[in-house]
Amino acid sequence: MTTQISIVVPCYNEEAALPYFFEEIRRVAEQMERREDGLSFEFLFVDDGSRDGTLSLLRRYAEEDARVRYLSFSRNFGKEAAMYAGLERARGDFVAVMDADMQDPPALLPELYEALCEEEYDCAATRRVTRKGEPPIRSFFARLFYRLINHISDTEIVDGARDFRLMKRRMVDAILSMKEVNRFSKGIFGWVGFRTKWIPFQNVKRVAGETKWSFWKLFRYSVQGILAFSTAPLAIASIVGVLSCLAAFVMTIIIVAKTLLFGDPVGGWPSLVCIVLFLGGVQLFCIGILGQYLAKTYLETKRRPIYILREEGGRAGDEES
Ligand code: UDP
Ligand code: MG
Description:
By secondary structure, this protein is α/β, with parallel strands linked by helices. The protein folds into 2 domains: 3-213 and 305-317, Spore Coat Polysaccharide Biosynthesis Protein SpsA, Chain A, CATH 3.90.550.10; 232-302.
Protein backbone atom coordinates (compact mmCIF):
# COMPACT_ATOMS: atom_id res chain seq x y z
CA MET A 1 0.00 0.00 0.00
CA THR A 2 1.35 3.39 -0.88
CA THR A 3 0.77 6.55 1.03
CA GLN A 4 1.11 9.91 -0.60
CA ILE A 5 1.87 13.19 1.13
CA SER A 6 0.99 16.41 -0.69
CA ILE A 7 2.86 19.54 0.26
CA VAL A 8 0.94 22.71 -0.59
CA VAL A 9 3.07 25.84 -0.79
CA PRO A 10 1.52 29.27 -1.37
CA CYS A 11 4.10 31.58 -2.99
CA TYR A 12 3.83 35.27 -3.57
CA ASN A 13 7.00 36.96 -4.80
CA GLU A 14 9.17 34.25 -3.27
CA GLU A 15 11.87 34.16 -5.91
CA ALA A 16 14.54 34.76 -3.26
CA ALA A 17 13.38 32.20 -0.70
CA LEU A 18 12.06 29.45 -2.96
CA PRO A 19 15.39 27.81 -3.91
CA TYR A 20 16.29 27.34 -0.25
CA PHE A 21 12.88 25.95 0.50
CA PHE A 22 12.80 23.57 -2.45
CA GLU A 23 16.21 22.16 -1.62
CA GLU A 24 15.30 21.63 2.00
CA ILE A 25 11.88 20.08 1.39
CA ARG A 26 13.38 17.69 -1.15
CA ARG A 27 16.01 16.67 1.33
CA VAL A 28 13.40 16.01 4.02
CA ALA A 29 11.16 14.16 1.56
CA GLU A 30 13.95 11.89 0.39
CA GLN A 31 14.93 11.16 3.95
CA MET A 32 11.35 10.18 4.77
CA GLU A 33 10.93 8.12 1.60
CA ARG A 34 14.08 6.22 2.41
CA ARG A 35 12.97 5.47 5.93
CA GLU A 36 9.48 4.35 5.10
CA ASP A 37 8.38 2.02 2.34
CA GLY A 38 5.59 3.06 0.04
CA LEU A 39 5.72 6.72 1.00
CA SER A 40 5.67 9.19 -1.87
CA PHE A 41 5.48 12.94 -2.16
CA GLU A 42 3.80 15.52 -4.32
CA PHE A 43 4.82 19.19 -4.20
CA LEU A 44 2.06 21.56 -5.14
CA PHE A 45 3.21 25.15 -5.49
CA VAL A 46 0.61 27.86 -5.84
CA ASP A 47 1.88 31.06 -7.40
CA ASP A 48 -0.42 33.74 -6.05
CA GLY A 49 0.01 36.23 -8.89
CA SER A 50 3.69 36.95 -8.19
CA ARG A 51 5.34 39.80 -10.06
CA ASP A 52 8.88 38.47 -9.79
CA GLY A 53 10.49 35.34 -11.19
CA THR A 54 8.56 32.91 -8.98
CA LEU A 55 6.56 31.41 -11.84
CA SER A 56 9.58 30.74 -14.05
CA LEU A 57 11.28 29.06 -11.08
CA LEU A 58 8.24 26.85 -10.62
CA ARG A 59 8.17 25.94 -14.31
CA ARG A 60 11.78 24.90 -14.03
CA TYR A 61 11.20 22.83 -10.90
CA ALA A 62 8.30 21.05 -12.59
CA GLU A 63 10.56 20.13 -15.49
CA GLU A 64 13.35 18.89 -13.24
CA ASP A 65 11.24 16.97 -10.78
CA ALA A 66 8.22 14.87 -11.71
CA ARG A 67 6.77 15.27 -8.23
CA VAL A 68 6.26 19.01 -8.71
CA ARG A 69 3.01 20.53 -9.88
CA TYR A 70 2.17 24.20 -9.89
CA LEU A 71 -0.81 26.48 -10.22
CA SER A 72 -0.58 30.12 -11.14
CA PHE A 73 -3.30 32.69 -10.41
CA SER A 74 -4.36 35.46 -12.75
CA ARG A 75 -3.60 38.01 -10.01
CA ASN A 76 -2.83 38.15 -6.31
CA PHE A 77 -5.77 36.57 -4.49
CA GLY A 78 -4.14 36.27 -1.06
CA LYS A 79 -2.67 33.39 0.89
CA GLU A 80 -6.08 32.07 1.93
CA ALA A 81 -7.14 31.62 -1.69
CA ALA A 82 -3.80 30.04 -2.55
CA MET A 83 -4.19 27.51 0.28
CA TYR A 84 -7.71 26.68 -0.83
CA ALA A 85 -6.61 26.09 -4.42
CA GLY A 86 -3.74 23.91 -3.24
CA LEU A 87 -5.93 21.81 -0.95
CA GLU A 88 -8.45 21.41 -3.75
CA ARG A 89 -5.85 20.02 -6.14
CA ALA A 90 -3.88 17.97 -3.65
CA ARG A 91 -4.25 14.22 -4.20
CA GLY A 92 -2.39 12.90 -1.19
CA ASP A 93 -3.77 10.87 1.71
CA PHE A 94 -2.02 13.42 3.87
CA VAL A 95 -1.77 17.08 3.00
CA ALA A 96 0.56 19.65 4.53
CA VAL A 97 0.44 23.41 4.08
CA MET A 98 3.76 25.25 4.37
CA ASP A 99 5.12 28.75 3.76
CA ALA A 100 7.84 29.13 1.19
CA ASP A 101 10.09 31.22 3.41
CA MET A 102 11.28 28.43 5.76
CA GLN A 103 9.42 29.95 8.69
CA ASP A 104 7.60 26.63 8.71
CA PRO A 105 10.67 24.42 9.06
CA PRO A 106 10.42 21.44 6.66
CA ALA A 107 12.54 19.52 9.17
CA LEU A 108 9.46 19.26 11.42
CA LEU A 109 7.60 17.23 8.80
CA PRO A 110 8.76 13.76 9.96
CA GLU A 111 7.59 14.59 13.46
CA LEU A 112 4.17 15.67 12.18
CA TYR A 113 3.89 12.52 10.11
CA GLU A 114 4.78 10.27 13.01
CA ALA A 115 2.18 11.95 15.20
CA LEU A 116 -0.49 11.08 12.63
CA CYS A 117 0.70 7.52 12.11
CA GLU A 118 1.01 6.41 15.65
CA GLU A 119 -1.74 8.24 17.39
CA GLU A 120 -5.42 8.76 16.91
CA TYR A 121 -5.10 12.24 15.48
CA ASP A 122 -6.48 13.71 12.28
CA CYS A 123 -4.14 16.63 12.17
CA ALA A 124 -0.74 17.56 13.50
CA ALA A 125 -0.24 21.30 13.68
CA THR A 126 2.60 23.57 14.68
CA ARG A 127 2.51 26.37 17.14
CA ARG A 128 5.27 28.81 17.79
CA VAL A 129 5.88 29.41 21.44
CA THR A 130 7.99 32.54 21.01
CA ARG A 131 7.60 35.55 18.83
CA LYS A 132 11.27 36.37 18.93
CA GLY A 133 12.49 38.57 16.10
CA GLU A 134 9.12 40.23 15.74
CA PRO A 135 8.50 43.90 16.60
CA PRO A 136 7.18 44.03 20.22
CA ILE A 137 4.21 46.16 19.23
CA ARG A 138 3.16 43.51 16.71
CA SER A 139 3.39 40.73 19.31
CA PHE A 140 1.38 42.84 21.73
CA PHE A 141 -1.48 43.36 19.30
CA ALA A 142 -1.34 39.73 18.19
CA ARG A 143 -1.79 38.58 21.80
CA LEU A 144 -4.61 41.07 22.29
CA PHE A 145 -6.31 39.81 19.14
CA TYR A 146 -6.20 36.16 20.22
CA ARG A 147 -7.55 37.02 23.64
CA LEU A 148 -10.37 39.07 22.15
CA ILE A 149 -11.44 36.63 19.46
CA ASN A 150 -11.40 33.63 21.79
CA HIS A 151 -13.59 35.60 24.12
CA ILE A 152 -16.23 36.47 21.56
CA SER A 153 -16.11 33.46 19.24
CA ASP A 154 -17.21 29.89 19.86
CA THR A 155 -14.52 28.61 17.55
CA GLU A 156 -11.22 27.95 19.25
CA ILE A 157 -8.41 29.95 17.70
CA VAL A 158 -5.04 28.98 19.11
CA ASP A 159 -2.50 31.71 19.87
CA GLY A 160 0.68 31.26 17.88
CA ALA A 161 -0.81 28.53 15.69
CA ARG A 162 0.70 28.55 12.22
CA ASP A 163 -0.96 27.38 9.06
CA PHE A 164 1.79 24.75 8.87
CA ARG A 165 0.03 21.47 9.53
CA LEU A 166 -0.30 17.95 8.21
CA MET A 167 -3.87 16.76 7.81
CA LYS A 168 -5.57 13.51 6.95
CA ARG A 169 -7.80 13.37 3.89
CA ARG A 170 -11.04 13.58 5.86
CA MET A 171 -10.04 16.88 7.44
CA VAL A 172 -8.97 18.31 4.08
CA ASP A 173 -12.37 17.37 2.63
CA ALA A 174 -14.11 19.05 5.53
CA ILE A 175 -12.13 22.25 4.95
CA LEU A 176 -12.92 22.17 1.25
CA SER A 177 -16.61 21.84 2.04
CA MET A 178 -16.48 25.35 3.50
CA LYS A 179 -16.92 27.45 0.41
CA GLU A 180 -16.95 30.90 1.97
CA VAL A 181 -15.10 33.61 0.09
CA ASN A 182 -14.00 35.52 3.18
CA ARG A 183 -11.64 32.81 4.39
CA PHE A 184 -9.91 32.98 7.74
CA SER A 185 -8.06 29.71 7.95
CA LYS A 186 -7.15 29.92 11.61
CA GLY A 187 -10.88 29.89 12.29
CA ILE A 188 -11.68 27.32 9.61
CA PHE A 189 -9.18 24.82 11.02
CA GLY A 190 -10.76 25.22 14.45
CA TRP A 191 -14.32 25.18 13.17
CA VAL A 192 -14.10 21.84 11.36
CA GLY A 193 -12.98 20.22 14.60
CA PHE A 194 -11.15 16.88 14.45
CA ARG A 195 -8.38 15.89 16.80
CA THR A 196 -5.33 18.06 16.53
CA LYS A 197 -1.95 17.40 18.05
CA TRP A 198 0.02 20.59 18.72
CA ILE A 199 3.73 20.61 18.20
CA PRO A 200 5.50 23.65 19.64
CA PHE A 201 8.58 25.17 18.04
CA GLN A 202 10.69 28.31 18.29
CA ASN A 203 10.04 31.17 15.91
CA VAL A 204 12.34 31.15 12.89
CA LYS A 205 13.30 34.17 10.81
CA ARG A 206 12.41 34.27 7.10
CA VAL A 207 15.33 32.93 5.07
CA ALA A 208 15.20 35.54 2.28
CA GLY A 209 12.86 38.06 0.76
CA GLU A 210 10.38 40.16 2.69
CA THR A 211 7.21 39.59 4.65
CA LYS A 212 4.02 40.51 2.80
CA TRP A 213 2.30 41.65 5.95
CA SER A 214 2.43 45.24 7.04
CA PHE A 215 0.96 46.17 10.39
CA TRP A 216 -2.07 47.70 8.70
CA LYS A 217 -2.66 44.61 6.56
CA LEU A 218 -2.51 42.41 9.66
CA PHE A 219 -4.96 44.69 11.42
CA ARG A 220 -7.43 44.39 8.56
CA TYR A 221 -6.92 40.63 8.49
CA SER A 222 -7.77 40.38 12.18
CA VAL A 223 -10.95 42.39 11.65
CA GLN A 224 -11.87 39.97 8.83
CA GLY A 225 -11.28 37.10 11.23
CA ILE A 226 -13.58 38.58 13.84
CA LEU A 227 -16.30 39.27 11.26
CA ALA A 228 -16.01 35.74 9.91
CA PHE A 229 -16.12 33.90 13.22
CA SER A 230 -18.15 36.00 15.60
CA THR A 231 -21.34 37.99 15.60
CA ALA A 232 -20.63 39.51 19.00
CA PRO A 233 -19.88 43.00 17.60
CA LEU A 234 -23.48 43.13 16.40
CA ALA A 235 -24.61 42.99 20.00
CA ILE A 236 -22.64 46.15 20.77
CA ALA A 237 -25.42 48.35 19.39
CA SER A 238 -28.01 46.84 21.72
CA ILE A 239 -25.74 47.06 24.76
CA VAL A 240 -24.75 50.67 24.10
CA GLY A 241 -28.41 51.50 23.45
CA VAL A 242 -29.54 50.06 26.77
CA LEU A 243 -26.72 51.83 28.62
CA SER A 244 -27.55 55.23 27.14
CA CYS A 245 -31.24 54.75 27.95
CA LEU A 246 -30.27 54.08 31.55
CA ALA A 247 -28.02 57.15 31.65
CA ALA A 248 -30.79 59.28 30.14
CA PHE A 249 -33.26 58.02 32.72
CA VAL A 250 -30.98 58.87 35.66
CA MET A 251 -30.19 62.29 34.23
CA THR A 252 -33.86 63.07 33.70
CA ILE A 253 -34.58 62.38 37.36
CA ILE A 254 -31.67 64.57 38.45
CA ILE A 255 -32.71 67.46 36.22
CA VAL A 256 -36.37 67.31 37.25
CA ALA A 257 -35.36 67.29 40.91
CA LYS A 258 -32.95 70.14 40.38
CA THR A 259 -35.55 72.25 38.60
CA LEU A 260 -38.17 71.66 41.28
CA LEU A 261 -35.78 72.43 44.14
CA PHE A 262 -33.68 75.26 42.74
CA GLY A 263 -35.72 76.74 39.90
CA ASP A 264 -34.71 76.74 36.29
CA PRO A 265 -31.71 78.84 35.30
CA VAL A 266 -31.34 78.75 31.50
CA GLY A 267 -28.02 77.40 30.32
CA GLY A 268 -26.26 74.16 29.73
CA TRP A 269 -26.19 74.16 25.96
CA PRO A 270 -22.47 73.26 25.76
CA SER A 271 -23.17 70.03 27.61
CA LEU A 272 -26.13 69.46 25.30
CA VAL A 273 -23.91 69.77 22.24
CA CYS A 274 -21.45 67.29 23.74
CA ILE A 275 -24.22 64.78 24.39
CA VAL A 276 -25.66 65.15 20.89
CA LEU A 277 -22.23 64.70 19.33
CA PHE A 278 -21.47 61.70 21.51
CA LEU A 279 -24.72 59.94 20.70
CA GLY A 280 -24.32 60.73 17.01
CA GLY A 281 -20.88 59.13 17.13
CA VAL A 282 -22.13 56.03 18.89
CA GLN A 283 -24.90 55.64 16.33
CA LEU A 284 -22.55 55.97 13.38
CA PHE A 285 -20.15 53.48 14.99
CA CYS A 286 -22.93 50.93 15.41
CA ILE A 287 -24.18 51.46 11.87
CA GLY A 288 -20.59 50.96 10.74
CA ILE A 289 -20.43 47.55 12.40
CA LEU A 290 -23.73 46.62 10.82
CA GLY A 291 -22.37 47.76 7.48
CA GLN A 292 -19.33 45.54 7.80
CA TYR A 293 -21.47 42.44 8.22
CA LEU A 294 -23.76 43.57 5.44
CA ALA A 295 -20.79 44.07 3.13
CA LYS A 296 -19.53 40.57 3.87
CA THR A 297 -22.98 39.13 3.24
CA TYR A 298 -23.14 41.05 -0.05
CA LEU A 299 -19.80 39.68 -1.20
CA GLU A 300 -20.68 36.12 -0.19
CA THR A 301 -23.98 36.22 -2.04
CA LYS A 302 -22.22 37.08 -5.29
CA ARG A 303 -20.62 33.64 -5.19
CA ARG A 304 -17.53 34.75 -7.01
CA PRO A 305 -14.85 32.11 -7.40
CA ILE A 306 -12.20 32.08 -4.67
CA TYR A 307 -9.39 32.23 -7.24
CA ILE A 308 -8.86 32.29 -10.99
CA LEU A 309 -6.20 30.15 -12.65
CA ARG A 310 -3.98 31.46 -15.40
CA GLU A 311 -1.65 28.53 -15.78
CA GLU A 312 -1.19 25.05 -14.44
CA GLY A 313 1.66 22.65 -14.96
CA GLY A 314 3.70 19.67 -13.90
CA ARG A 315 4.14 16.21 -15.27
CA ALA A 316 2.10 14.54 -12.56
CA GLY A 317 -0.84 16.63 -13.81
CA ASP A 318 -0.48 15.45 -17.44
CA GLU A 319 -0.68 11.78 -16.60
CA GLU A 320 -4.11 12.07 -15.17
CA SER A 321 -5.74 14.06 -17.96
N1 UDP B 1 1.58 34.56 0.52
C1 UDP B 1 0.70 34.35 -0.53
N2 UDP B 1 -0.11 35.39 -0.94
C2 UDP B 1 -0.08 36.62 -0.35
C3 UDP B 1 0.82 36.80 0.73
C4 UDP B 1 1.62 35.77 1.15
O1 UDP B 1 0.64 33.26 -1.09
O2 UDP B 1 -0.81 37.51 -0.78
C5 UDP B 1 2.45 33.45 0.98
C6 UDP B 1 3.93 33.79 1.00
O3 UDP B 1 4.55 33.57 -0.23
C7 UDP B 1 4.45 32.83 2.07
C8 UDP B 1 3.27 32.73 3.03
O4 UDP B 1 2.13 33.14 2.30
O5 UDP B 1 4.74 31.55 1.55
C9 UDP B 1 3.47 33.58 4.28
O6 UDP B 1 3.76 34.91 3.92
P1 UDP B 1 4.79 35.80 4.73
O7 UDP B 1 6.03 35.03 5.01
O8 UDP B 1 4.94 37.08 3.99
O9 UDP B 1 3.99 36.06 6.07
P2 UDP B 1 4.58 36.07 7.57
O10 UDP B 1 5.35 34.79 7.72
O11 UDP B 1 5.45 37.27 7.66
O12 UDP B 1 3.36 36.12 8.42
MG1 MG C 1 6.84 34.23 6.64
